[in-house]
Amino acid sequence: MATTFTIHPLKCGYIVNHEVSSFVYRKNYGGRRLDAPCLAFLLRGGGQDILIDTGPGPKARVPQHYTAAEADIDDLLLAELGRLGVDPGAIRIVVLTHLHNDHVGGVPHFPAATFYVQEAELREAAWPVPFQRPIYEVNQRGRRPPWVEILDRMEVLTGDSPILPGVSTVLLPGHTSGSQGVLVDTTEGPYLLPGDLIPLYDNWPADGGPAVPNGNHTDLYAYDRSFRRLAGIGATVLPSHDPRVLDHPVYPPPKERD
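Structure (tokenized):
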């Protein structure tokens, strides 16, 4: 019997008062703003808990990623895992879609985990183009990138790779050189967690309209190729920063009874 997983979105922080147009390349200039959630995802199945991304980190380190609504919460990721009864020390597998600081800030919480990252992403994060250095926290006086602390526990991948039966990575560059998505088998077919290749549902319209790159990107040619790959996979996509993902506590959503 094939292993299938449920997918639990975890709210780990926010990009506060964020201009939506920055997520949709050449669209919606001067339009709406939102508190865009920084989402991680917990996969549960076959006796395994697997974490996809770790959010920006605790409030003490990144207060700019918390809102007034979290006045009594010191660490959103830990609160979300606690809500699901998950011990961070028991997590053995963490897949990082990329190494931007709003996706890797929580890595110190998982002392027993192996972290899966693309080689191309690790190379880029070590010395990115100057415009990308702040978001990788590289060459920033007084800042130490969280991913540096887990270099000895990284499993470095070179392209699409199986993680466990029912879970595999898919190389999807464009947002960064080494961005990867995570393909997950569920009882309702494949789901794809694309990282910041697809930050909002607006980037991948459900009506089949034209896909729109993230405004924060490194290579539009690679982005186009990744969109074509994504279309060929035909999976249900869960964006990385869209508040509408939190409309359901678990995916696939339970079917409504008549």
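The chain has one domain: 6-247. The mean pLDDT is 95.
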